[in-house]
Amino acid sequence: MINIENKRVLFCDLDGTLIKTVSKAVFPKDVTDFQIRKDVLDKVKDLGCFTHLAIVTNQAGIPKFVNKEDFVAKLCCIAKFIEKYCSVNVKAVWCSSSDSNHPCRKPNPGMLEDLYEEYYDPMSKSMMMMIGDASGKPGCFSDSDLKCAENFGIDYMDVEDFVML
Ligand SMILES: [Mg+2]
């Protein structure tokens, strides 16, 4: 069992975790096709233990399918909103590489390592955890969020289990 009260840093996947599509499509139809998952933000707020939230997202659609400036604008607006709504410090990074060997593409832990070195060091990794929807559950499309947390060495929880806490 994860000791949530001791956690201060919450690493979060973006698509399917902090936001979902309005269209119900798996991939956003365009850059406006998203809505905030209020259930997730309310849980972050209610738990009250987190001081930092870090969005870590694979975005291999940039720049071929998604315009980079549009995506950055969307990500900044989401980060700003979460910062205000949940009263936490928010960082947001993305990896646009589709190369599974790229150190920053989840399940590789490069994005978390970079954030840790820049902002969270020397905080103990026992005070950090990650949530995502790529959790390798039966029927799940991927386990890249789960594996990313394991590779970085922190606790992990599927987002649907997180909202049920
Ligand atoms: Mg996801």
Describe the fold and architecture.
This protein has five helices and seven strands; from the N terminus they run βββαβαβαβαβα. With 165 residues, the chain is an alpha/beta fold. The strands form two sheets. The protein has a five-stranded parallel sheet, sandwiched between helices. A two-stranded antiparallel ribbon has the order 2-3. The longest helix has 19 residues. It is globular and about 40 Å long. The model has no long low-confidence stretch (mean pLDDT 97).
Summarize the structure.
With 165 residues, the protein is of the alpha/beta class.
In the sheet with the most strands, the strands line up as 5-4-1-6-7
Strand content: 15-25%
* Uncertain residue segments: none
CA distance, first residue to last residue: 12 Å
Helix and strand succession? EEEHEHEHEHEH
User: Which structural category fits the helices and strands?
Assistant: alpha/beta
The helicity comes to 25-40%
Average pLDDT figure: 97
Number of continuous helical runs: 5
Q: What small molecules are bound in this structure?
A: magnesium ion
Sheet with the most strands? 5 strands, parallel
Radius of gyration: 15 Å
Shape field: globular
- Overall strand count: 7
